[in-house]
Amino acid sequence: MVEERLKKHLRLPAVFAFGIGPMLSSGIFLLPGMVYSKVGPAAILAYLVAGLLIVPSLLSKAELATAMPRAGGTYYFLDRSMGPMIGTIAGLGTWLALTFKSAFDLIGLGAYLVLFLALPVKPVALALCVAFGVLSITGVKNVGRLQGVLVASLLGFLTFFIARGLFAADATQFQPFFTKGTSSFLGAIGFVYVGFTGLTKVASVAEEVDNPDRILPLGMLVALGVTIVVYLLGMIVIISVLPADSLAQTLTPIADAAGNFMGEFGVIIMSIAALLAFSASANAGLTSASRYPLAMSRDNLIAEYFKRLGRFHTPTRSIILTTGFMAVLILILSPEGIAKLASAFQIMIFGLINLAVIVMRESKIASYDPGFRSVLYPWLQIIGILTAVVLIPELGILPVISSGAVVLFAVLWYIYYAQKRVRRGGAMFQVFQRLGQSASPQLDQELRQILREKGLRK
After folding, report:
1. Over 70: is that where the pLDDT of 439 sits?
2. d(Cα 296, Cα 79) in Å, to the nearest integer?
């Protein structure tokens, strides 16, 4: 039986919006004060270094996504490259990470809305969760349109903030530039690096992208470039207009900075911008996360129930599962909390993505034919792997322990549920096939099917 494929409705503007929306939420509206408290004015440099360090993972993800444009993105890449056990870890863990992040985005969004509507936070967040879930069920085209509107409006507000703020900048706020040691600086980079992992969400909807060979890498690169520029200019404004003590303690840095040089009007418009940012992140997060149960169900790693498409040719059951789990998280989590428990896991996954490119290339599978190939192979991939190794310990013990718990649960799930239902090997076996006879022809067959769908190139 041929699997039902999702419709290809997403074009370049939607891919750009899916990529940049999640990065412009907590990364600029929440983290600046926290990063500044760690390293002072050198926070600007931490943002720049983190942005550059994400480039290897971005290029690796773009290569894999153009070779294997399937729902589930990261799960699918790691499953097909390193086998179903690693795929189970990546699928369950990334689904949990995206769902946690989206639930907290909705709590943050609800907290901003109640400033204007005087309603309790959690009921507002729950209502928004259901609304985004219904929108996702009606089709990714509708989700993409809303995402485009949200991101365009958000960039307009941020451009206005930066343009006005640069005229009020005080260069003396950057002296001294370095106030802490190397360890604090690495911790700050790891803190910011997590904010860039929103790019994960783009690959999750790769199956629904029209002309993925061109649009996926271009949309991801443009999204990252614009994000880095906004981060750097935004941080220059924030640091230069807010007193150091105030910036180090605030959780609303942009609104505070805007109020400093635009008064109450600035606070209002940047609070509206925050609403747009959290909406864009939650909207993209719910849609992206819902593709993971779909992909894992197709591969028999979870119940087949979730692979069936609904009336609007969307993974309705998977969307309902994700929306319901988000609703539970909203009810049980503290509105004041911040979703950092999955940070180490996300960085680990980015390291594995770089390893997956090495595995796929060295497997010499003839049908591995990405429309985009990462430059400077394998050196960029090695840098990406080493980045994960260096940054994970800098995040602290709690994120590492929580990530270990996710890995343990996924391994047990695979051993006791999925292993007997799966007869598939990853490209890793092709790399080491001279050591045995475990190489599986199934992956080559899947990649050839993808080539037929994309149309053969010269």
Report:
1. no
2. 10
User: CA-to-CA distance for 182 and 172, rounded, in angstroms?
Assistant: 23
Q: Would you state the pLDDT for residue 364?
A: 82
| pTM, full prediction | 0.86
Question: Cα separation of 249 and 171, whole Å?
Answer: 21
Tokens of residue 31, six digits: 């983290």
- What pLDDT, in 10s, does the model give residues 382-421? 999 999 888 888 777 877 888 888 899 999 999 999 888 8
Q: Give the count of beta carbons closer than 10 Å to the beta carbon of residue 379.
A: 11
pLDDT (tens digit per residue) in 95-137: 888 888 788 778 767 666 666 666 777 788 888 889 989 988 8
What distance in Å separates the CA atoms of residue 80 and residue 394, rounded to the nearest whole number? 30
| pLDDT of 155 above 50 | yes
Task: Label residues 389-398 b or e (16+ Cβ within 10 Å = b).
Answer: eebbebbeee
Where would I find the H helices in 121-139? 121-137
Phi-psi region of 396 (alpha: psi -120 to 50; beta: other; left: phi over 0): left
What domains, with CATH codes, occur in the chain?
12-424 (1.20.1740.10)
Q: What are phi and psi of 307, to 5 degrees?
A: -90, -10
Where does 290-311 have alpha helices with state H?
A: 291-298
Q: How far apart are CA 171 and CA 154, in angstroms?
A: 27
State which amino acid sits at residue 187.
G
Give the C-alpha separation, 79 to 72, whole Å: 10
Q: Give burial (CB, 10 Å; 0-12/13-18/19+) of 27.
A: buried
Distance (Å, whole) CA 277 – CA 258: 16
**C-alpha to C-alpha distance for 54 and 395, rounded to whole angstroms:** 16
Range from 118-127, 222-231, 233-242, 353-362 carrying the lowest mean pLDDT: 118-127
Q: What per-residue confidence (pLDDT) applies to 334?
A: 57
Q: Which of 199-213, 229-243, 336-350 has the highest mean pLDDT?
A: 229-243
Contact assessment for residue 172 and residue 34, using Cβ atoms and an 8 Å cutoff: no
